[in-house]
Design goal:
heterodimer, A: 7-stranded mixed sheet, 0% helix, globular, B: 3-stranded antiparallel sheet, 11 strands
Chain lengths: 112, 109
């Protein structure tokens, strides 16, 4: 089934660890996004990509990095996690034409 | 600056009562506005967009450019409407959606 998948759904790690949040979509969408969502706060765009080998930083400054080597895959990496990185990370994709996002289920990260 | 403001963090109503979730925006140009909804333990999903001018699950939203508002309305709330609602604006560059902080709607019987 065409969908967007995020793994892990939940992750608890210690400070200083390197983590990668995976996001894959099987809809053939060119545009993909990462949003950060904190409770009671708006979703903040942290990264986006318009296609393979294209990545841009979003409105919210983030210490994370992303890559887009394949159309369907858009992983987010934190080289050295800190407690301030504790948040929910939402991946989304968008097909051409309609300005509508399809969201993944999210990855909830807790850094101790 | 482009911004979306949802002034209410929480809106509690009784079943059958009218609902209005407020959304104001700041944008220089012709905006494209959306309402997204997140039910408990489900993904964030599109509810409606202003260019469609449609009613989804009984909800409607009219773009008022004079008041720069895009309020979400439903005449009779149902318990299954309880969820988090986000108003969103497509930015000038068309790169991504700008979201408000969200409003939690709680409908009780």
């Amino acid at each position: 089934e065409a969908d967007i998948y995020q793994t892990p759904r939940y992750l608890v790690i210690g400070t200083g660890k390197k983590i990668t949040l995976e996001c894959s979509q099987t809809m053939g969408h060119d545009k993909m996004y990462w949003y950060q969502q904190d409770p009671g706060m708006e979703l903040h765009l942290i990264h986006y990509s318009y296609g393979v080998n294209s990545t841009e930083k979003g409105d919210l400054s983030s210490e994370s990095t992303v890559s887009r080597i394949r159309t369907e895959h858009f992983p987010l990496t934190l080289e050295s996690a800190r407690p301030s990185h504790t948040s929910q990370y939402l991946c989304a994709s968008q097909g051409s034409g309609a300005n509508v996002l399809t969201f993944g289920a999210g990855s909830r990260l807790t850094v101790l | 600056a482009q911004r979306v403001t949802q002034p209410e963090k929480l809106l509690s109503v009784f079943k059958g009562a009218p609902v209005e979730l407020k959304c104001n925006y700041s944008y220089s140009g012709s905006p494209e506005l959306f309402w997204y909804v997140q039910y408990s333990r489900q993904r964030l999903q599109l509810l409606l967009r202003h260019i469609s001018r449609e009613s989804i699950k009984g909800f409607t939203a009219d773009l008022n450019k004079g008041e720069t508002s895009f309020h979400l309305k439903k005449p009779f709330a149902q318990e299954e409407d309880s969820a988090m609602y986000y108003c969103a604006l497509s930015n000038q560059a068309g790169t991504a959606l700008i979201f408000g902080k969200g409003t939690t709607l709680s409908v009780s019987s």
